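Our preliminary data section would be incomplete without showing what the modeling component actually yields. Below, a chain of 403 amino acids is followed by its predicted structure, encoded as C-alpha cells that our downstream tools consume directly.
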Amino acid sequence: MQVNTLTARYCGLCPVRIQEALFIGRSLERCQKFQEFVDKIQKQGYNVPELFTDEPSAVHTLQERNKATMPYEQYHTCRDQVLVLLEKNKVEWKKRYLDYASIITENLESIKSNRRRLRESAQLKFYLNTTNAKKAKNTVCFDIRYLGQRVAEVTSSIDGITLSTKGFEDNNQRDFGCEIKLDNVPWGEKEARAFRAYFKNREPLRNKAGNNKGNDEHRLESLLLSEFSKKSGNKKALKYIQPVMIGGFRFPMPTPISANKKELMYSGQSGGGIDILARVGIGNHTRLCVIELKDENKPSEPASDVLKQAIKYAVFIRELLRSKAGMQWWELFGFGGGEIPKKLVIHAVCAMPYIENADTSFCGHTIGMGGDEIQLQYIYFKEANNKIKGIETSLGKQAEKSE
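Predicted structure:
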C-alpha cells in the first residue's frame, strides 16, 4: 500500500514520514508506532483512509481538489524535506533547544537589568546571541554592531561595564577607517567614549574594501530592525510589527538546519540563523513572522527562492513550538503567559528591494502542518541614504484584519 502524496500534503502531513512509518512493520496492525501516528492525526480531524488509496476515482477527486496548489508544490517539498531532517535528528535538537529555553529564561532578569544600564544609540546597536544568553546568569556579554557589522563586544557585570575591540580591529580599520583599539576599557573612560563617538559622527558608509554582499544584507537587516522597532504606528512604514527581542537585545534566532545552501542540511549547533524573527498583528491575532532578507531583487535569485529559505526556517519554528520546549520559547518570543494557539499560523516572508511588477503571486498561499499553517507573504522595501523610505507588503493587510 502506497501513501497518496497529494492527500498527505493537502492534510499538512509529510508523505515521506508516513511512508517510513509503513515500513517499520509488515502490517498496519502490527505497527504500534504507526498506529499512534494514525490516532494523532484522526484527532486532528483528518480522514485517514484517504491517505492510503489506490482507487482511481478517489485519486482523481483528490487531484482535482489539490490542482490549485500544484504551482506551489516546490514550497510543500521544502516543508517535507525539513520535517524529515528534524525527525531523524529530533533527540539532539529537542534536548538542546529545551536547554536553551530553560537557561535563557532563568537568566532573563539578569539580561534585562544589565540591558537597562546602557543606552543604545541610533548608530550602534546591541545584539545578544544564544551562547552569551546562556552564560548571562551574572555577567552579560553582547555585541555592538554598526551598519549590521560587529565592531566591539561589551561585558556588563557587577564589577562594571567594559568595551573591547579584540577580534574586530582589522575589519574596523578596513571597512570604517577606525584605528581605535580597546582591551576591556571601562565604558565611561575617554578611549571608550572616543570609539563610540567615532561611529556616531562618521558618514554611515563602508569603505570600498568592505562593500560585499554579506555586509550589505547585514546593513539592510539592521535598517529593517530599526524600522520595525519604532513604537509609534504613524511613523512606521509597516504598522503592528515588532522584532523578537530577548531582554531588550536584538536576538539572532538560531536553527539546526542550513537552508541557504543548494542542498538542505542538518547542521546541529552550526545551523543557519533567521534573518529577522518578528511579531505582527494585534492582541490575540498576533502572529510570528520568519523573514528572509536579500539585498537585491533579480531574476537569478527570485522571490520564490528566497521564500523557500523562509519556509524551511518557519517549519523549524513550528516544530519547536509544538515540542516540549514550545511554551518557554513562546514566552521568550514575546507572547507573555498566553497559551500557544490551537491553530498556529506563522508567516514565511521574503524581504527584498522594491521593483516594478515584483512577484506577489504566492501571497496568502498556505502550507498545512497538521492543524497549523505557514502563510506566504512579501515585504518589498525602498531604501535610500541608509534609511527605509517605504514598504509594500502583504503583511500590512493581514495586520489590519486583526484590528
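Residues 119-208 form one domain. The chain has 13 helices and 16 strands. Preliminary results of this kind motivate Aim 1 of the renewal.
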